[in-house]
Structure formats: C-alpha cells, structure tokens
Design a protein that fits this description.
164 residues; alpha+beta; seven-stranded antiparallel beta sheet; 7 strands; 32% strand; globular
C-alpha cells in the first residue's frame, strides 16, 4: 500500500457533473444525489489517506457513516459542474468528524454543506474498532493541515423549529 501525500486544506475532490437522470420533478438536483456527490469526494479523500479499497481488502476494515446533516443552499441543474471539499474537523480513537462543501465548479457559489461522523469498522465482525496507529498518524496530519481553516461557520448546526 503506497503512503499518502500531505493532505491539502481543505481536500478538494474531482469535478463531477450533475446528471440529467438525477433531476427531480421540480427540475433540479434531487436531494439524494447531493449525498452521492459528497460521498464521492469523501471516498477520494479517504483514498488519499490510504483508507480506500486497498485498505479494506488488505486490512479488513473500512469506514461507515454513522450520522449526516445536509443543508441545501442553492439549486443545481442538469449538466452543472460541481466540486466538493472535505475538512477533517476532529477525530478520536474510532470516529472521524467531517465537514464538506459543494460548490458550482464554474460559478463558485456554495450549493450545499454536509457534516458527518464516520466510524472505523472491522468488516468481518461488523463492529466499530480503533484506528490503527499509522492511520491515527495520518488523521492527525490531516487535522493539523486543516486546522488553519478554523471551525466552519455552518458546522454543528441542529434541526429544530424555534418557537417565537
């Protein structure tokens, strides 16, 4: 398994294109496909960290999403090019807290944000397990690299109906 290089702040995924079959009856990107776009960029970030398919095959472990919070800020349409970023906010022995933004790749506007907690999982036992030491070291390097970004303003939001 090759060693990953230093993680840029934030990690920026490849340009993706909103597919016409992902549009809903309102004519814009269906909510489910925002998760596809975010997940693709997150996979790229984890591959960069050495936690991709090779890691799963060779070490019998991977990461699973435990919780996610998505905010829709501006519509996307068919054919729009987009790019998602990934920021490691924090991690502990078994979990990672990640924040992502989805931007229109040409116009630059922020379309959506996603925040999630991922768990490190033994694929055979299907149980949460601690990150190995080498992974902890790479996560720490990523956290240090991303610390210059500060805590994202939209991070830690909750859902509720405020009573006035």
């Amino acid at each position: 398994m090759s060693q990953p290089s230093r993680t840029p702040a934030p990690f920026t995924g490849s340009i993706q294109t909103v597919r016409s079959e992902w549009l809903d009856y309102n004519g814009h990107l269906n909510m489910a496909y925002y998760n596809v776009l975010f997940d693709t960029a997150l996979d790229e970030a984890f591959i960069h960290l050495g936690l991709g398919p090779d890691y799963a095959r060779e070490r019998g472990a991977s990461f699973f999403t435990a919780e996610t919070h998505l905010c829709y800020l501006r519509e996307l349409n068919g054919g729009d090019p987009v790019r998602a970023t990934v920021q490691l906010v924090d991690f502990d022995a078994k979990r990672a807290h990640l924040y992502q933004e989805l931007h229109h790749a040409d116009d630059g506007f922020l379309s959506a944000t996603s925040e999630q907690v991922s768990l490190h999982v033994d694929l055979q036992a299907r149980k949460v397990i601690p990150w190995p030491q080498d992974v902890l070291e790479r996560l720490e390097e990523m956290r240090e690299s991303h610390a210059v970004l500060g805590r994202p303003e939209r991070c830690g939001r909750r859902i509720s109906l405020e009573r006035r």
